[in-house]
Amino acid sequence: MEKPKIRLHMRAVRRQYSQAQKDAAAIRLCEQITQLPIWSRAKHIAIYYPKSEELDTQLIIRSAWENKKSIYLPVTNS
Question: Would you say the C-alpha torsion 51, 52, 58, 59 has a positive or negative sign?
Fold first, then answer.
């Protein structure tokens, strides 16, 4: 499958989840990531800022700021 078709397919899949399901998944992801041994050692975190249908990464970003980690977000032209 070509990349644009994969993106469309994945976007359609993500839209099937309720907001409550997305919120719960974002909380679980943050808990899992911040419990990793590498998280406590990391000083720099590269992460994306979510678009509307993407998993919310703001909890991870907030945790990184609270722990004095540098955050790096990609620059996109879309």
Answer: negative
Amino acid at the residue 34: T
Name the DSSP class of 75.
Answer: -
| Tokens matching residue 25 | 């998944």
Specify the 3-state DSSP secondary structure of 70: strand
Tell me how far CA of residue 43 lies from CA of 1, 37, 72, in angstroms.
37, 13, 11
The end-to-end CA distance of the chain, in Å, is: 22
For the chain, the maximum distance between any two Cα atoms, rounded to a whole number of angstroms, is 41
Q: Which two tokens stand for residue 15?
A: 């839209």
pLDDT in tens, 19-72: 899 999 999 999 999 999 999 999 999 999 888 778 899 999 999 999 999 999
CA-nearest of 21, 29, 38, 36 to 62 is: 29
